[in-house]
Amino acid sequence: MAAIYSGIHLKLKSSRTPWEEKLKLARFAWISQQCFLPNKEQVLVDWVSHVLTGYYGKKLDLQQNLVEGLWAYLDDILHSKKLQNLLNQGKTLSLRFAVAQIINERISACASGTSLDISTALSCCHGILSSSMLSVIYATKYELMVELLNRLCQLASVQLRLQGPEQPLKRQVFEVLLLALNSYLQVQKQQSNPNRVFAQVTAHLLQPFLLLRHFLTSRNWTAEDDPAIRHHLSKDIRAKVDAVLQSALFVTEHLQSYKEELLRVKEGPGTKKAPVTKALLSPVSTILAKLTDTKSCDPALRFALRVNSIPVLFRFALEAFCKGPENKVVGFHMLTRFFPTLGFSEELAKKELSSPGNWSMALLALENLLNLSLSWDLYNVAADRFQHGEAQFQFYREVAELLSNHSQPTIPAWYRCLKALFALNHLIVEPDLDGLVSSAWIDADCVEPRVMKAREALLAVLLQTYAKLRQLPRLFEEVLTVICRPAADELRQPVLSAGLSRNLSQCLLDIPPSQSLEICSLILEKCRSFLLPDLEGQDDLALKLLSLSVLLHAVLFNVKSMDNSTPPPVVKRSQCIMGELLAVIKSLLDLLQGPFTDALWFKKTAEGALLLTYTWVEVDTLFQMHCSKYVSQVRPESQSSHLEGGTSFLPGVKEEDWNVILSKATQCGSLGQLLQELLALQKMKQILLKMDFVSNASSEETLRSTAGFILRSGKSALSQTNTDQWYGEIGNVDVNTYPVAHWFLVTSNLALISPYLCEEDLSHIASVLLSSVLHKGVVDGAEDQGTCLSVPLISRHLLGDIMLIELPSLYSAFIRSLSQRIVGILRGSNQGPLSQVLLRFVQASGATVRSEEEGSETTSKMNDASPAWKRLESIAREVLISSNACTAISLPKSQLESLMNLLPVTRALNPDGMSPEDHSECFLLLFFTATNVRPSCDTESTKTLELLKEVYVLLASLLSGRNMGSVLKVVHGSDLLEAAMTSLFSLSDRGVSEAVDSSTWLAFLQAVQQFLRGLIQVIINRRKSVRLNLEKFTSFMVTSDMAASILSREKLGTRKPGSVQLLLASLTTLCKAMIVDHSSSKLLESTMTGLLEKAIATMGPLIQNVLKSQSCGLLGQSFSVNVVTVLLEAELAQSSSKPPEAGSLRYIGLYRGFTQQILRELSSSPRPMDFLHSALCFLQAFYSAAEKTKEPGLDELFIAVVQSLKKLLAAPWISAGEIHELEDPLSKLLAQLVTNSTREQFHVILMSLKDGLGSAWLWSGRHGEVLSAVTLTRLVVLSPLNDLSSKAFWFMAPQIITNLVFIVKESSKEVSLTAGFTVPVLEALRAVLRQGEGRLSNPHHVAMVYGALQSVPLEHLSVEDYYTAFQAIHEVLFAVIQCHPKVMLKAAPSFLNCFYRLVVSIMHEGRQKGEGEKAGSDAEFEVLLKCAQLVERMYTHIATAAEDFTVLSSFIVAQYVSELQKVTLYPQIKRHLTEGVYKILDLCFEQDVKFLNTALQMGVKEVFNELFANYTRYHKTQRQGEEKYTA
């Protein structure tokens, strides 16, 4: 055979052999093991390389398909396993450089626009670069590698630029590019000449790299893009590109060259230069020349590429050269060279900054440059002034002047650049403060949210800076100058936004009161000297007056309030300010005494005057209340005039003049209307303050009229629901926001005004509240920040506020309004006899019963003969008649949805806050709805069931109210139960319950059971006619015609299955209620025993027939189990008075068969959680019954239940969360099993635990078996064990602990198992340690858990998993310190190492994130806060554990401060950790503190000194004060 294939080499060289035949022979030769050629693999690779080189060198003429075949053949060779094996064996194989050159040319041709399929060539390139031996052709020829990267970057950039579904990105290009970048980085590290690398990168790679980076960062990624490229490859490529640029352009060897270029001007003539060999010539100029090269890329991209690249390169330079303080000046001069390239020079600005888009990009780049300068601390004010002649200051001043002269108030980055300059030095911007205040504050007119956010951030820094410098009056001088400057004031935005007001408020609290008063004086001086003389007839001056009034209002409302400790000069100055303000107000009022005009100046002057008046009244009243030194200008007789109905607040202003001004102001606009309401509210407050304890008639009348004025003033504005937003600023009130402001004023002062409102006004408030809550258009844009208000949002908060319940008259009005709305919907679809019943609900009550007036015993003291209760009795009779008659209200779809929208509002009501009458009427209306509403057609059945389910849930909620007894005074409980069941059976007959296995029907059934349970419980708890009601309802359920037709065996197959379920559900609920209260009263015990007998006699045959019939499959699994469980419990309760005998249960055969069925199905396949819960409850009940009745085969049953539980917990379809949900029934079942278990029975459990905790299951990957045993271990140890079982368990406990520790260590090796596997094991370990207090005699068995805790992973976890692991470790440690303190003290270092691991972990996770790190959400932060609280808790328990622990207290503190020195924690997290460490410092003696000061390193020592100073100042003094009063 060898002779046959020996001539292949000659045939490949022969010119007579066809090329197709040659290719086939070459393929055969590569794969065949029977072809013998010397160095065959190298020969074949050389042959294909030679042919491809000849073709692309124009020496061979081949067909295109043959060329593609040659490329495919080369690709197959490069990716073959045979080649990999040869290379792994150490054999050598080489490629020609020409192949690499051809690949580069093919990629270049494709990047230039030629339509070529280069996937095979790229695959070949991937194969070459993937092999360390083959990639030598690139590694040994550096220029070839650079060329490859250049071509690949161009190709990737072309693909990224051609965005669209018809031009999808090719993953192969980016994978090869990433591989080439990795290879290049290795090659570059091997280059011995950094100058050569710099030259190659700047000449060939800088522009392609920056272009590629620009496309990667600016591309609008879409769903059609390959996720691997978007999420992984793009980030990896960008990181590698950054690494190449930084390591090539900015390396330590080049630092001297950069200094030579950047600092040559700064060096003196006598400066001795360091010798520089082979230095770069002008590296910065080289880079900038390449960036500004006009021929390098598309003109449309040139500017964007340059401005986006400059901050990146500047960051690279800073990271390379400016890590130490000695080279900061190099970084600054680099900034001065980079800055002009952004287009801010005069010649470039005319060309490139002509469009807003370019301005935005340039300002974004400038922002990045300034932030980098700030974060790297390039600007040292003192060093710049004394060492460099303020070079940096002058540069930043030029930047500030440029921003001021070319203001761009519509671009957010413009504000952020100014903010950065302020952060560098406020003096940089201060010369342009006038223009800044104008452009960025007073005259800024852009309301786009992004711009507003940036503007408010800048102004916040502005205010805070001048507040810290104690120069806020200086800033306000500029602000007032700009406001009073001639301008189109009607186009100006309000002078204060919500965010700006908050910042101003904080700043005013931080400055001395004298400066706040100085600001007020400046504002008043502007009003007197500039505005008042020429105000009449001047619209612009009136607008300026209103702006100054808003400013003065904001300052006076946020200034520090005076009290008796305020220095007299401040009090005197305040009185002068108030006097000046009063004089200005009087001047304005005199101006308004003339005839009313519709001119703008008159309206704005009136609004300004009212705002200043309201401000003066509020502040004057506040000063009077809190500062006895303050003397108000209001005389006592003027104050007392309000009690008689006077309206004037100002001294020296007559009542008639004030009333004239108020009448004119009413016509001036929304702001004036709101200010009148505020003044009226202030009037009510003053009256209430001055009234005697015994109110007089005139005062009461004044209060009623004033309260009515406040409400009716905005009544028309609230006639239609308003969804506009208001941010709480009084100066921003207009026609659109007035309804919000008015509604906020009313709702926030309801406690003050509601007692003086008439019934009509209360009904109006209730109607507005209900309508706005139901409105769909609620906008919650800024709700999270608490800054945005709207009418629906205010109403929603009011409805959930407890204050509404504390206003009984308003709460009652709201309930009546809600009832009327429900009645209106029901009446809209029915004009029959039911309409008359509904009409009775809306009739006015003759008398009102208020629960809050009659106290807690209202129900027992109600007057049964009152008209209100007679009316309710009449309504109750008619409701029962209509329910028993099965008349129906069919709601169409629209009305059904309207009613569904009302029910959530009803659910928000608090039953305990209702009066007995409202409670009864609401219950009867909902009961009428539940028993009479029916679907209008078959398609509406599901929606009707959902509606009725909600109604029954609401009825059950009302049954829990304290006034539920009042309902049973007007109607018997049994009548309600019978009417409800009659209606439900009728509903089932109408076909609503066809799909009884649907989730909607089962949820409806649960709601019905909840209602029945609640009502029966109320009947029993009320202790009035209990026997009569229960006997009547039981007889109805057993002997009524409807029940008889269901119970009839002949008709069982023809009845609707829903009726059967309803009957079983009602009987089950009745039995359950009687079982619970069976033994509570001997008087009722015999009655309930007889009733249970009747119910059992009915339920038993019915359940058996249902389970045997075909309809059994239609019943929900959990429902069936629940019914049988209740039947079993009822039999046990009914026979509890008899002595237990074997076989005493009537339906024991049913229970046995049911038990066997449940044991078979419990773990056979995935089951719903409600079925599992019900099945476990049944097993507990049956095992309890079997024990009581001495059922034969109890041991077999015990073993079967234990095995089934183990299989269930080990089932692959059940999760750890679902096991946690089943923990309660599992615990009860296991407790039932082990409480009276024999030694043999408990031995079965122990053997099961021992088998499940074995290492074989873990090593074989069957984690479910281990988790099952772990869960059973935890539940068994928490169960009440008898003496024999307890001794057996704790004898085996050391082995169990050893196994659990081993499992923790093994599972911790896989991070993915932490939350679902390792944490449950730790919980079991904790339970064993807790219950083992005093039982575990060997301390080694406790101390061995430390090794397990050290292995639990806390890194690379999600926040939820991190918290569960953190908490589990903490709880195990807490169990040790609480239950085994001696063990903890003996192995204190091991304990502290485990705890210190938690401390380090939470400090790492709770640190403030850097610029490149992603900050977590608020929910994630709350989780970390919980972890910090756990650490504080542990510190506290360590401090109180034992006095012997003081030996290690100094080491605990040292560990904490050493870690604290490395990170900057969030303040909330640091507060909890620090409070815990303070408890440890309480244990430290003076020598411990000295030891720490001596032993700690310098930086750590500073952290400790700060910590100890705060401890001494705050915590220690507080603790000593507490100890002083501690016995």
Helix content: over 70%
User: What percentage of the residues does DSSP assign to strands (E)?
Assistant: under 5%
Poorly predicted segments: 265-277, 778-785, 844-863, 1521-1527
Strand order of the largest sheet: 1-2
End-to-end Cα distance:
107 Å
What is the overall shape? globular
Number of helices: 75
Number of strands: 2
Structural class based on helices, strands and sheet pairing: mainly alpha
User: The biggest beta sheet, please?
Assistant: 2 strands, parallel
Gyration radius from CA atoms, angstroms: 43 Å
Could you report the average pLDDT, rounded to the nearest whole number?
84
Structure report:
Helices cover 70% and strands 0% of the residues. The chain starts with 7 loop residues before the first helix and ends with a helix. Helix 12 crosses helix 15, helix 64 (1283-1307) runs parallel beside helix 67 and helix 67 packs parallel to helix 70 (1388-1405). The protein has a two-stranded parallel sheet with strand order 1-2. The relative contact order is 0.02. The model is unreliable at 265-277, 778-785, 844-863 and 1521-1527 (pLDDT under 50). It has 1527 residues and is mostly helical.
